[in-house]
């Protein structure tokens, strides 16, 4: 006899209607075995083989059993907040919307937000303050002092390596924009001399003037330019100059073809560091600097094989004549110890003007080297002049 027994009952409420689902488990009641007929011995019955079932029926039974086991496990794993087997989806939706709404203190403490943690992360300023508070004051002072000294030393090194380069970019003898400037206190700033900045071609350094003058004479004997700067240790031999590094490099290549070692470097005469009283002196040396630049460009262009407009030479000589006529008046206003160096500067510029005038008629390379020679002498004369004004 087969008895149907209710195993689980589930009710689902959907859109206001309740739907019930249940599973039926079939069980078999024990039935007593039929008594054996009298006068017959009880013989064990041979087990009858179960009837063969098709494979698809066996697979269907196993699949049904797995579905029943999964449904049973699903019922047992139902969350604990279900108080009955009735699932109200509308109620779950209302609770979810309630949790998503902002919290208002209306007495309902069900979905109250959690309090912030006590051990909140400290701000960076507080951590830094606590770090320094644990250090001794002497150690902090030593650290700050080391930083100040390091910054100052770095600035000094930077100035030493880049200061000359910045001053030499102009590569010309240019006076200040304003000779006399009105200061905030009503006083006028001092008049200064112009700077003279070039790219020099150095041919050697000597510890004694005898050896240096010997090499200078040998270079001049083959028709090139050379001077010895004696106010220094070691003494430096200059064999050419240009306004730009590229121009000085052309002269360096010419010397290297004769086996001469060369070194191109910037050289500056800082006249702006010296104050003078006469405005006329400043203007005179400023105009001389402009002509110095014209002569340097002309000589390098000719020595490099470049053409130069010869008609411009007449214009240059007219300008030089006017400038030279002012020389005696300006020199008279200078201190006595500086007049000799100023006269040497004028004399060297006059020699360069003579060489360029000769080049216009003959166009000889020796005249171009003569211009270089006189410019080197004028450079050293102006350097000595500025040093005397100190």
From TrEMBL:
Q: Where is the composition biased (Basic and acidic residues)?
A: 1-28, 54-77, 99-109
Tell me where the transmembrane regions lie.
Answer: 137-161
Keywords per UniProt:
Membrane, Transmembrane, Transmembrane helix
Stretches for region Disordered: 1-77, 99-125
Q: Per its UniProt entry, which superkingdom is the organism in?
A: Bacteria
Span of the signal peptide: none
Q: What is this protein called?
A: SPOR domain-containing protein
| Protein source organism | Alkalihalobacterium chitinilyticum
Lineage of producing organism: Bacteria, Bacillati, Bacillota, Bacilli, Bacillales
């Amino acid at each position: 006899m087969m008895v149907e027994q209710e195993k689980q009952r589930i009710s689902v409420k959907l859109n206001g209607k309740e739907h019930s689902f249940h599973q039926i488990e079939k069980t078999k009641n024990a039935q007593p075995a039929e008594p054996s007929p009298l006068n017959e011995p009880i013989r064990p019955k041979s087990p009858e083989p179960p009837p063969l079932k098709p494979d698809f029926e066996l697979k269907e039974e196993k699949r049904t059993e797995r579905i029943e086991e999964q449904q049973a496990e699903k019922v047992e794993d139902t969350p604990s907040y279900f108080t009955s087997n009735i699932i109200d989806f509308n109620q779950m939706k209302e609770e979810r919307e309630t949790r998503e709404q902002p919290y208002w203190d209306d007495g309902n403490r069900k979905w109250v937000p959690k309090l912030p943690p006590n051990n909140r992360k400290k701000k960076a300023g507080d951590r830094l303050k606590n770090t320094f508070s644990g250090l001794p004051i002497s150690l902090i002072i030593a650290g700050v002092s080391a930083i100040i000294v390091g910054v100052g030393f770095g600035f000094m090194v930077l100035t030493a390596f880049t200061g000359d380069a910045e001053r030499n970019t102009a590569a010309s003898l240019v006076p200040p924009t304003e000779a006399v400037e009105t200061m905030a206190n009503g006083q006028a700033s001092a008049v200064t001399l112009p700077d003279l900045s070039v790219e020099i071609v150095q041919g050697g350094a000597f510890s004694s003037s005898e050896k240096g003058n010997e090499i200078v004479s040998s270079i001049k004997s083959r028709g090139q330019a050379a001077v010895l700067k004696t106010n220094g240790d070691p003494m430096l031999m200059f064999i050419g100059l240009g306004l730009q590094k590229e121009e000085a490099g052309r002269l360096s290549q010419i010397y290297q073809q004769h086996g001469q070692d060369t070194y191109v470097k910037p050289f500056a005469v800082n006249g702006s560091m010296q104050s003078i009283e006469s405005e006329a002196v400043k203007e005179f040396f400023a105009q001389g600097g402009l002509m110095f630049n014209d002569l340097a460009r002309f000589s390098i262009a000719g020595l490099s094989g470049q053409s130069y407009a010869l008609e411009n030479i007449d214009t240059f000589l007219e300008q030089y004549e006017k400038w030279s006529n002012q020389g005696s008046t300006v020199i008279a206003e200078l201190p006595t110890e500086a007049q000799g160096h100023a006269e040497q500067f004028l004399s060297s510029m006059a020699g360069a003007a003579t060489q360029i005038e000769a080049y216009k008629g003959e166009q000889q390379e020796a005249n171009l080297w003569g211009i270089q020679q006189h410019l080197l002498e004028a450079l050293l004369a102006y350097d000595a002049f500025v040093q005397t004004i100190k």
